[in-house]
UniProtKB/TrEMBL annotation:
GO terms for cellular component: cytosol. Transmembrane segments: none annotated. One of its GO terms (molecular function) is DNA-binding transcription factor activity. Keywords: DNA-binding, Transcription, Transcription regulation. Belongs to the LysR transcriptional regulatory family. Residues 1-58 form the HTH lysR-type domain. Coiled coil: none annotated. This is LysR family transcriptional regulator.
Amino acid sequence: MNLKQLRYFLAVAEEKQITAAAKRLFIAQPPLSYQLKQLEKELEVKLFVRTAYGIELTDAGRELQSYAEKIVALAETAEEQVHKTAKGELGTIKIGSASSSVGELPSAAFVKLTKYYPTVSFDVFEENSFGVLEKLRNGTIDLGIVRTPFNHHGIESKTLTNEKMTLVTTDEKLLNKKAVTLKDLVKQSLIIYRRFENIFNESFAHQGLTPFYAVKCDDSRTAILWAQKGMGSALVPESIANLYASGQFVPVKHASWQTHLQLVWRSGKVSPLTQRIIDLFN
């Protein structure tokens, strides 16, 4: 018993005539009759009886019809779903989101994608950048959005943003400035996101300056919260300052203090759906 036989059987059961069923199936009558006989032979039952009005199903035929309808429908659904998956129109994308990437997810492109392909879903994992990269490397997620700097070994990436550093502060004198310099910063008790410490140290050392880090932490939102409580002034990327400290920050004037959000994925072949998501970020 195969799908072709079941489709032929259903056509005859619905049309109640071999001639009409053959036309519907775009085949000649002899091969249709042959397939039906083979099906009856394999099942060892009579599926049809001839009447004055055409062909009717036997009790065994009616029982097969209920199963055949389900089997053929399931096969058609499976075929459709497989094709959609192969074209990246179906499935779940597992994406890791660093805390500092909240402004990038969900993007307008994601909304557009799910409008056209409503069967695409997202499984979001929230970590710091290092946690996202670890999940990416061990295969827990398909894509990640992380902040530079990080080790790119075995990772491909696409830059999404280019940002400068800002100083979140409660000091009104600093907030009235258009920008602050490194010399301004060494006069402050600084709160830093630990991943930038080496970059900061190199820049201060290059100018012969020694900063005071009052607080070090692993999340830029934590740095902002401590600054807002008056524990010092926080150095954080511009996008994070805009989200969580609007009107409470001033840009840092130092060209090398640039950071990027990047879309990242494992080097090598990716699934069609993952590739479709990558292509959305232009």
